[in-house]
C-alpha cells in the first residue's frame, strides 16, 4: 500500500556546482591551535571567583581532572563550531587524547566535508533562497548522500564513512577536517541526522533508508561511548536541539543496561541558554550525582578560551590558575 498523498519529484532539481555557489566561510579564516603561554594566565587570573568566573574555573578543573585520569570525554557540537572556524581546536583536543569521541548533526558533517574537500562552506541563504538555488550544490549532495549509501551497505557508521572518504580521497584541506582526523586516529565521530533538515535531503540522491540506517548506527556507537562516561565528562557546544536529545537517549540506554552507575561532569558552552541543552545535558543527567555547568559566550571566543585554560590546567597539575 502506498501513500494516499502525492510526493514531489526531486529528480528535476536544478543543481549548481560548489564553485558557482561559493561559500561565506573559507578555510583560510580558520584558527590554528596555538599553545597558551604564561600571559594567558593573567587573563584567567582576572576572572573573579564569583558567578560565571567561579563556574568557568570549576568547569576547567573538572574536565582537566578527567583528562588527567584518561577518562571519557564526549564533545558534542553544532554546525556553527565549524562555521566559526574552530575545527582545528577540536582536532587538537582529539590529537592530545583529551576528547574521546565527537558527535554532531547533519549540518556539521556537511560543513566539515565542504571545508575538507573544497575549502569553503556556508552559502548565502537569503540570496540563494530567493533565486531557487539554496541547498542545490551537487558535489555536497553526491559526497554526503554517497557516504550514507556506502555506510548502510557496509554496515558502518555515517561519521566514520565521511571521515574515511575524506582521508582516502586526500582532501586538500583535510588538516581542518574533524571527521577526517578522527578517522585517522580511530576516534568515534558520529552524525545524528533529522531527515529533512539538511540541504542534501533536497536531492534525489538522498535515500531515507540509507541515511536512517547510517545515522541510527551512529546513535548506537555514541551510546556505547556514553556508557563509559562514569567519572568522565560530556561537553555540548552550540547544539540546541539534536545533540541534547540524542545524548539523553544514549544516557538512558547506558543506565538501563547497568553500564553507567557513577557520576560525571556535564558542560554546556553556548551563547544563550537553550532549554534542551540546559535540561537534557546539564541538569537532568547530573540531578542525583555529578556536576553540571553552563558557560555563556560566543563560540568563536568561548571555545578558544576554554581550550587554552584547559591546556594550562593540565600543564600546571590539573587546576586552572587561581584568581589573585
Quaternary organisation of the protein chains = single chain
Mean pLDDT: 94
Low-confidence stretches: none
Shape: globular
Described by strand count, sense and barrel closure, the largest sheet is: 6 strands, parallel
Main β-sheet, spatial strand arrangement: 5-3-2-6-7-8
Give the helix tally: 14
**What is the beta-strand fraction?**
5-15%
Euclidean distance between termini CA atoms: 72 Å
Rg over CA atoms? 20 Å
Structural class: alpha/beta
Key features of this structure:
324 residues; globular; two-stranded antiparallel sheet; alpha/beta; 14 helices
What's the topology here?
Blueprint: H1 18-21, E1 25-26, H2 38-45, H3 51-68, E2 73-77, H4 80-83, H5 87-95, E3 101-105, H6 106-118, E4 120-121, H7 125-131, H8 138-154, H9 158-168, H10 178-185, E5 189-192, H11 208-226, E6 233-237, H12 242-256, E7 265-270, H13 275-283, E8 291-296, H14 299-315
Parallel strand pairs: 2-3, 2-6, 3-5, 6-7, 7-8
Antiparallel strand pairs: 1-4
Helix pairs in contact: 3-14, 5-10, 6-9, 8-9, 8-11, 9-10, 11-12, 12-13
Could you walk me through the main structural features you see in this protein, from its secondary elements to its overall organization?
- The structure is a single chain.
- The chain is 49% helix and 11% strand.
- It contains 14 helices and eight strands.
- It has helices at residues 18-21, 38-45, 51-68, 80-83, 87-95, 106-118, 125-131, 138-154, 158-168, 178-185, 208-226, 242-256, 275-283, 299-315; strands at 25-26, 73-77, 101-105, 120-121, 189-192, 233-237, 265-270, 291-296.
- Strands 5-3-2-6-7-8 form a six-stranded parallel sheet, with helices on both faces. It has a two-stranded antiparallel sheet with strand order 1-4.
- β7 (265-270), α13 and β8 form a beta-alpha-beta unit.
- It is globular and about 60 Å long.
Amino acid at each position: 500500500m502506498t501513500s494516499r498523498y502525492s510526493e514531489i519529484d526531486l529528480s528535476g532539481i536544478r543543481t549548481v556546482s560548489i564553485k558557482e555557489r561559493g561559500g561565506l566561510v573559507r578555510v583560510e579564516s580558520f584558527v590554528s591551535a596555538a599553545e597558551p603561554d604564561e600571559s594567558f594566565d593573567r587573563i584567567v587570573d582576572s576572572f573573579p571567583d564569583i558567578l560565571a568566573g567561579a563556574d568557568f574555573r570549576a568547569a576547567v578543573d573538572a574536565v582537566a581532572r578527567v583528562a588527567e585520569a584518561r577518562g571519557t570525554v564526549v564533545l558534542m557540537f553544532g554546525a556553527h563550531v565549524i562555521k566559526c572556524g574552530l575545527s582545528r581546536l577540536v582536532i587538537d583536543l582529539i590529537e592530545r587524547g583529551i576528547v574521546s569521541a565527537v558527535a554532531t548533526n547533519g549540518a556539521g558533517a556537511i560543513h566539515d566535508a565542504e571545508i575538507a574537500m573544497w575549502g569553503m562552506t556556508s552559502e548565502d541563504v537569503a540570496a540563494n533562497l530567493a533565486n531557487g538555488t539554496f541547498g542545490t550544490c551537487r558535489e555536497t549532495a553526491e559526497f554526503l548522500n554517497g557516504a550514507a549509501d556506502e555506510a548502510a551497505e557496509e554496515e558502518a557508521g555515517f561519521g566514520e564513512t565521511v571521515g574515511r572518504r575524506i582521508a582516502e580521497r586526500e582532501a586538500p584541506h583535510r588538516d581542518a577536517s574533524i571527521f577526517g582526523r578522527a578517522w585517522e586516529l580511530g576516534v568515534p565521530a558520529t552524525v545524528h541526522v533529522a531527515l529533512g533538515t539538511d540541504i542534501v535531503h533536497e536531492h534525489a540522491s538522498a535515500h531515507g533508508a540509507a541515511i536512517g540506517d547510517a545515522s541510527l548506527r551512529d546513535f548506537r556507537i555514541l551510546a556505547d561511548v556514553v556508557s563509559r562516561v562514569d567519572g568522565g565528562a560530556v561537553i555540548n557546544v552550540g547544539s540546541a536541539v539534536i545533540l541534547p536529545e540524542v545524548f539523553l537517549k544514549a544516557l538512558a540506554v547506558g543506565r538501563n543496561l547497568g553500564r553507567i552507575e557513577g557520576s560525571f561532569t556535564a558542560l554546556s558552552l553556548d551563547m544563550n541558554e537553550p532549554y534542551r541543552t540546559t535540561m537534557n545535558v546539564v541538569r537532568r543527567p547530573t540531578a542525583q550525582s555529578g556536576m553540571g555547568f553552563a558557560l555563556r559566550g560566543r563560540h568563536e571566543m568561548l571555545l578558544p578560551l576554554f581550550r587554552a585554560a584547559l591546556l594550562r590546567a593540565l600543564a600546571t597539575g590539573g587546576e586552572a590558575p587561581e584568581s589573585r
